[in-house]
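Notes on consecutive records. When two proteins share a document, each keeps its own sequence and its own C-alpha cell line. Never mix them. Below: protein one.
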Amino acid sequence: MNNGEQTASPNKIKALWQRRKKRIIVIGVLVLILLLLVLKVRSCTQNIGGEMIDPSAGMMPSTVMVDRGDVQRVIYATGSVMENNTEEITAEVSDKVTAIHVYEGQEVTVGDSLYTIDDSEAGLVIRKDRLVWQKKQKDLTEQIAALKSNEIYSEVGGV
C-alpha cells in the first residue's frame, strides 16, 4: 500500500451504501406522502356547480338522484303526547269528590259518568229548601183563602 493513497475498506463502503440507502428511502417516503396530500387536497376542492368547495368547511356534500313520489315522515321520539283539545270540568256545587270514573287523557262521550260527589251536605240543603218551600206554599194557600172570605180574623187574642 502506498502512503499517499487512501483505500476504502469494505466496511466503510458498506456503511456509506447503508447511509445512502436510508436517505433514498426517507426521501422516497416523504415524496410519496407529499404526493398523497396533494391528491387529497385536490379531490376535496372539486368544482361543483361552478363553485369551489372549501374542504375546511366540514363534510363534503353528496348528490343524490331524486325520484317523484309521496313524502313519508317517520318520527322516533320518547315523551308524552298532549291533546290540544281539552276541557276543564267544574261542578256546580262545591262538595267532596268521592270517586273519579275516568283517567287523564281518556276519550269520553256525552253521558259518561266522570266523577261522584258526596251529596250528603247538598241533600241537607235540598231538604231545608223543600221545608221552606212547603211553609211558603202553606202561607200562600192561607192568604189566598183569607182573600176569598170577607171575614178578618185576629191573629192575637186579648182585650
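Protein two starts on the next line and is unrelated to protein one.
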Amino acid sequence: MARNSAARRHPETDPIDPRRLAPTLAMEERPVGTLAPYANNARRHSDKQIEKIAGSIRSFGFVNPILIDAQGVVVAGHGRLEAAKRLGMASVPTIRLDHLSEAEKRAYVIADNRLAELADWDR
C-alpha cells in the first residue's frame, strides 16, 4: 500500500529510508516542446534573469538538468527551460522525479527556492 506521505511523515523522527534519501536518478535528454511548466511554480523569472541564465548556459553549457515529474511537468528549472528556448535548443537534460507525491512536489518547489535564498555568501 502506497504511503500518502507528506502529511504523515515526520522527517525528524521517522527512520531514514536510504531509497528515499538517494533515489535512483537517470539523466535523459528531452525535447524542449515536451516539457510543461508547473502550474503552481513558486517563482517567476524576469526577462533580465532569463537572459543571465542563457548567458550562463552559453558560457558553461547546460550543466544543471531540469527536474521533471513522470508527465514531463517541470518541478525545478523553469528559468533554465525558458533560457534553452531563447537559445534555440531542441532538447535539454532532465531528471525525472518519480518518488514524490503531489504534496511533496509542491513542498520541494518551495524548499528548492527558499533554501538557496537563505544561504550566506562566503566572503
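For the record: The chain has four helices and four strands.
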